[in-house]
Amino acid sequence: MSTPRKRPRQQRSQETYDAILEAAAQLFERHGYAAATTNRIAERAGVSIGSLYQYFPNKDALLYALGERHMLQLVEALGAVFARLREEAPPLEGTVRTLVGALADLHRADPVTHRLLYDQAPRPPEAAAQLRGVQTAMAREVEHHLRRLGVGGPDRALTALLLVQAAEAQVHGALLDPPAGRSAEEVVEAVVVLCLRSLRP
């Protein structure tokens, strides 16, 4: 998969780079990944096509950069949540609510990019590897709390990974396409209840 040609080093270049990425995310969301063109993205960003190609050789490179930015934001936000959980060490329900709530907040923070990366655009191997890396890091942290709380069965590593994957998928669906007649908050609460039921003896 193509990657960005170069990274901005000055503030003005960073502003141009960010404007192109934001325009790409908006047009991918509005018209679909296949229909959006680099010419339309440049026009939307208010830059020349030459300026766009200075940073991104094609749409794949734009998608890669969007995914990279999204994953960095996700890792930073989760890191703060994990640090707070380690410090506060809440009981089981508080731990589960904090983790599921963090996933919900991440989906709410940037739904356009999230929908694009997970539902609309083709997911290249690099993006899939990034997601697996984040899920693995989350699972390690969840495993720590399962051990701390004395729950999760004999194979806590597997339990933690399955919990992370299931909760992420359920929260994703709840917030981006909630069931008819149900609010996103109701479904997120149901995810918390399901996690608690699977962990309590």
TrEMBL record:
PROSITE patterns registered for this protein in UniProt: HTH_TETR_1 (PS01081), HTH_TETR_2 (PS50977)
GO molecular-function terms, A-Z: DNA-binding transcription factor activity; transcription cis-regulatory region binding
The HTH tetR-type domain, residue ranges: 14-74
DNA-binding region per UniProt: 37-56
Superkingdom to which the source organism belongs: Bacteria
Cited Gene3D superfamilies: Tetracycline Repressor, domain 2
InterPro entries per record: DNA-bd_HTH_TetR-type_CS, Homeodomain-like_sf, HTH-type_TetR-like_transc_reg, HTH_TetR, TetR_C_15
Keyword Transcription regulation: yes
Entry keyword set: DNA-binding, Transcription, Transcription regulation
Family annotation (SUPFAM superfamilies): Homeodomain-like (SSF46689)
Protein name: TetR/AcrR family transcriptional regulator
